[in-house]
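W.,

You were right to be curious about this one. When I first looked at the sequence I had no strong expectations either way, so I just let the prediction run and decided to look at it fresh. Below is the sequence, 135 residues in total, followed by the output.
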Amino acid sequence: MSDNLPGSRYLALKALMMPRETNAYGTIFGGVLLSYIDQAGAVGAHHAVACAGWPQQPLVTVAMNRVEFHQPVYVGDLLSFWTEPGRVGTTSITIHVIVEAEREGKTIKVTEADVTFVAIEMEGESRRPVPVRGE
């Protein structure tokens, strides 16, 4: 099997930006967006794993790369978090997350990032990486 999954776009999350999430400049904190990106990436990773027919197992975030903030995000923006599967390693899967805002009938790409997750086995408090495709 290839190291890459087909690049099917998946709507992992939608969120309305609220006033409590703003910084001193009146735009949404970057950290708020990073949190949503992490959540959407996890949903997208589980979806990609399920579509590939691999076993469902815990996936944990190990890296967030190439985060690019293209446009500011404002209170009232309805954000769509789209995911696309990327590289699949032995124990990891990378998901590309694209964040789009709906404004005045237009769709605007505001942020994007690559998030890498590792499949793990949990035994008590210990965690160990396991093959993402199953053993």
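Here's what jumped out at me. The CA atoms of residues 57 and 73 lie 33 Å apart. And, maybe more interesting for your project: The first strand starts at residue 10 and ends at 16.

Coffee later to discuss?

I.
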